[in-house]
Amino acid sequence: MLDSADLSDRIAEILEAHRSLEGPLLPILHDVQAAFGHIPQAAVPQIAKALNLSKAEVHGVVTFYHDFRDMPAGRHVLKLCRAEACQAMGADRVAGAVKAALGIDWHETTPDGRVTLEPVFCLGLCACGPAAMVDGRLVGRCDAGIVAEVAE
Ligand code: FES
Questions:
Q1: If exposure means fewest CB atoms within 10 Å of the residue's CB, which of 52, 57, 115, 130 is most exposed?
Q2: Which of 79, 89, 122 to mutate to test the pocket of ligand 1 (most atoms within 8 A of CB)?
Q3: Phi-psi category of 74—alpha, beta or left, where left has phi over 0 and alpha has psi -120 to 50?
Q4: Mutate to test the pocket of ligand 1, among 82, 125, 133, 141 (most ligand atoms within 8 A of CB)
Q5: Are residues 96 and 137 in contact, defined by beta-carbon separation less than 8 angstroms?
Q6: Phi and psi angles of residue 40, each rounded to the nearest 5 degrees, phi first
Q7: In ligand 1, which atom is closest to the CA atom of 130?
Q8: What is the third-level CATH fold of 76-149?
Q9: Domain residues of the chain, as ranges?
Q10: CA-based nearest residue to 74, from 97, 104, 101
Q11: How far is the C-alpha of 40 from the C-alpha of 52, rounded, in Å?
């Protein structure tokens, strides 16, 4: 577990590395997420102060972009495509079955910390819909059996 001094030091390093950039907020948030796996709540005031923004402005950007998490992800991240071509191939049905099997909704993590479920809008695998991504690996023509891929 990271203590607040370590977190603050690491955030300060990331802020310093982006000091010369114009419009550095998104690159900073990407680096913070790469470092911690999410954007820790405690990082928001420090980032806001360094960039002369309000905490609400930084929080607004974190919540606007779905790629940023405000909580750590589960051990596996399962993304299901929600875009049109996959919808036409039954993505809604698969999503419903996956949600029921995992007992969670979009952007949630199973209580055992195993799986985080996220929607994604086109994985570039439209001809093989419904498409999914399991921990960064593309899976085409998926069905509810995709849950088995995140079984451990
Ligand atoms: S629409 Fe699903 S991968 Fe493109």
A1: 52
A2: 122
A3: beta
A4: 125
A5: no
A6: -60, 140
A7: 2
A8: Glutaredoxin (3.40.30)
A9: 4-64, 76-149
A10: 104
A11: 19
